[in-house]
Amino acid sequence: IMREVAGQFEKPALLFSGGKDSITLVHLALKAFRPGKFPFPLVHIDTGHNFPEALSFRDALAATIGEKLIVRQVEDSIKKHQLTEPKGKFA
């Protein structure tokens, strides 16, 4: 499936939270694409609610396997787009 996605889409990415499911997907991608590089980056959306050890593991795993890791902060997106909590009866 990962090879099909890589072959059919322009900009695939593998969402990576650092949890057991994400780690399993990374290992499946290693089996699918090694000895070459992944045809997609790992993407982590940081909610700001992670244990420091999880973030350290995320960084160490990406460095160990030598793959690109893109990290984006939820808080940065909220500030950039000037998002606010919805108000009103059906918020």
Verbal overview:
With 91 residues, the protein is α/β, with parallel strands linked by helices. It contains four helices and three strands; from the N terminus they run H-E-H-E-H-E-H. It has a three-stranded parallel sheet with strand order 1-2-3. The protein starts with a helix and ends in an 11-residue tail after the last helix.
Features:
91 residues; single chain; 46% helix; three-stranded parallel sheet; globular; alpha/beta
Classification by helices and strands: alpha/beta
> Approximately how much beta-strand content do the residues carry?
5-15%
Note the total helix count.
Answer: 4
Unreliable spans are: none
Average of pLDDT? 90
Helical fraction equals 40-55%
What's the SSE pattern?
HEHEHEH
- Across the major sheet, the strand order is 1-2-3
Give the radius of gyration: 16 Å
Shape: globular
